Amino acid sequence: MARICAVCNKKPQVVNIVSHANNKVKKWVYPNVHRMRFQYARDTSGKVYRDRVCTKCLKARKVAKVV
Length: 67
Prior knowledge:
By secondary structure, the chain is mainly beta. It has one helix and five strands. Strands 4-3-5 form a three-stranded antiparallel β-sheet. A two-stranded antiparallel ribbon has the order 1-2. Strand 1 (13-18) and strand 2 form a beta hairpin.
């Protein structure tokens, strides 16, 4: 599946854009996901995965990027 984080399962959301006149228009907000090779931080086996990971998981060090 596209645009879903493999670590935290973050998915696209539907939000409302609210104008000054309180008009509401629906809009999709997509998570900032990148396709990369990574290892889980708490995994001691060192297995390398390749999937989409959001930048919040990278910043929180839930995964480590493999170059």
